[in-house]
Write the structure tokens for this entry.
Amino acid sequence: MKLIKLLCGIGFLVVLASNISTISRWSESRGVYDDICYLRQAHLFKLFGLDGLNTDLKREDDQYLANKLKEMDYPEWNVTTRAPCHVWMEKTKKTVLQYPPGTGFMLALFPEGFQVIPLYVLASIVMVGFAFLAMTYASTLASLALVAVFGDVAIYLMINPTKASYSVAPTMMVCALAGWLTAKLFADRSRHRLVLLALVGLLIGLSVNLRLPNLFLSAGYCLYLAGAFLLARNRETFLQGAAFGAALLIGMAPTLVANAINAGSPFSTTYGGQDLAPPELDASVLWQYFRDVQFTLLAIAAAWTAWLWRFNRGGARRVAIVLAANLVVNLIFFMTHPIFTPYYIMPIDMLTLWTLLFATLDLRGRAAAEPGVPQLEEALKRHRRSMIHLGPAGPR
């Protein structure tokens, strides 16, 4: 097993090296509006610190956005009311970024002009770290093979389709950590459950600062905790729900503050246009999802969740309930959203799959540690052999 684990680890590092080689050739000027707007938020943090949460275009003293738009031959680069991914807020009389501030904050951690490459390299390294963590849980050849395939795919996904939006790279890091903690949460029977719930809630709240639709990643947890409280009606289930909800709100605080500054209320959105369109089933959108790799991952996640439901030990069924509820809510939202992108359902895919991986490894580890039929039969054979060599007076 040690040799196979070594080979498995080398495989992870080879895929990581391939990722870094590919990422190192990326350009931050690829002519995508979303890219420019995320970089503008990072620029504001560089200039104003936390006051960069105020994204009003009137603060464009250095014409950062205008110059970026001019570089890509945007015809109305100097018309503030026509700036892409910016929305006029009547309540505050501001033209502001529609995106939450988290992705810009992550980009601002790196030197201006060299922000995207180190962010994606960091995200890829984090994926490798979680792949190695999963490998330590693998106790059989079958589970090690699962980790090897899963880890290589998860690392590769950090360049495709994650490259499509800068917000997805940090989201993938959060999903991996939240998935591990979720599996640990339902496998843990100690007093740490409240702490784990709070950590998962905090992480999902933080992910909302990266992409607003990440709020739906909390749906399964909220439904499960609400159901548990309604069924039990006791102090423990109330505290569990309160811990998760409070941590979720704390994690979302930067977005709530940004909304208050830019839109006039913590619960007023800065989004506009198609993003605010009412839910509607669109056959063309559904077809695009159906033929995309996201849907393949979603199908694997759904089938794996159904498989996990078969086991009534180690919290497996509770994990399956949370994941199934999460998948259903997110599927309904994105399938009725009028826009398709190659990364929209990647967060729910990867949060679910990372959770399933660690939950399955925990389940297999428990099964391997329990004496089963083969071990019992071997014990009986040893007992019979020992009886042959024993007589009335003891050993011959």
In short: The chain has two domains: 28-104, 163-369. The first strand starts at residue 86 and ends at 89.
